[in-house]
What we know:
Helix content is about 75%, strand content about 0%. The protein is mostly helical.
Amino acid sequence: MAKQDRAIRTRQTILQAAAKIFEERGYQAATIADILHTAGVTKGALYFHFQSKEHLAQGVLHEQDQRLTIPDRPCKLQQLADEVLLHAYRLQTDPMVRAGVRLTMDQHAEGLDRTGPFLRWSTICRQHLEKAQAQGELLPHVNPAVTADTLVAAFAGIQSMSQTISDYQDLQTRTTHLLQHLLPSITQPPILTTLDLTPQRGQHLYEEVRDRLATVS
Length: 217
């Protein structure tokens, strides 16, 4: 068990180092040597867990989605909004998430499959919207798949604009504005008035999920 715990810690150390380098330099400019130096591990240890720089990048892309799960909400549109607001907060505060977004949006990352995060987010949003539709929360014209793709694309643009203008400092406010503009076009009016879309909600959600994890642990 001690050996397994050590391997898990080593893998996490490598991923954190890779996230730092990918965020700072982008995929093309990052090197295995840079990541090794930052992680403080041997080349053998790194290649035991990751076969290449591409595998490291995929590890970072996958890691950003792990561990934090929004509790089930009776209102599925609130749950959808919570997913987006929590991600915005984590993007401000979690280097792993920032690195994952940098990789996802990096159009110069030749040879790296960047479709995973977009497809995962579209699937998550579509599932929430389908449940919202089944509960009568959506307006009749709404197509959950089209709306999910539109929300993901719009949020990607908001992230990029916030990163460029303020290094993500205004991202929670911009995310609230996005939801306030998008949701009225798809939501039944009585449901819309119940939704909490405030910029502070992302941090509150993070603390809620963190406390639940601590209780389980």
